[in-house]
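Students often ask why we bother encoding 3D structure as a string. The short answer is that it lets us treat folding as translation between two languages. Here is a chain of 200 residues written in the first language.
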Amino acid sequence: MRIQSKLMAGVTTASLVIIASIASIPARADTIGITYNFSGAGVEAPPVVIGTTLFLDGTVTGGSVVTSDPGLNALWNPVAFHDTCEADLLTGQLTGVFTFTFANGDVLSGSIFEDVSQVLPTQSGPYSGTLTFTGGTGEFAGATGSGSVAGVVGAESTAFGSGSVTTVAITPEPASIALFGTGLLGFGAFVRNKLARHQS
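And here it is in the second language, the structure alphabet:
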């Protein structure tokens, strides 16, 4: 009986220690340097002008987002870029939101700011700006970071840039931890019953 009690106490203590250890694991942040490149005509919804504001909505597919990790490059590419923006026709400043949709289904989203003052007069020319990463789905849930963007608008438009994304690794949720602990406690009960049958 004493061996059985010690075994049960040991299993219970081990279960609680493991549960506490998992619950205390901090979220791990990884900063990934990226470069991106998109080219082609893309698909642009008809632009709308209201007052002095130009509203734009477009998508470019077949782009690339490259890191120093060949595994990530294979997982992510090709990439689609979509943005919904407003350009002030008086100042040439463009603001809006964007998404990178990766080949594995993950999405990185954020806000965009560009100086398109050289593009607006003739609907062609160079532009530059910044992307601010604010989150997404999958690996990019809770992601932060920023990057530059530049390019040329024309019959064959281009966009390119570089930056860094900080992703936060997912820690086990409380329900998963509880389920794991319940399993360990159940195992302890199984061992106790087995010992009890063995002793009778």
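Translate back mentally: DSSP finds three helices and ten strands in the chain. Keep this in mind for the problem set.
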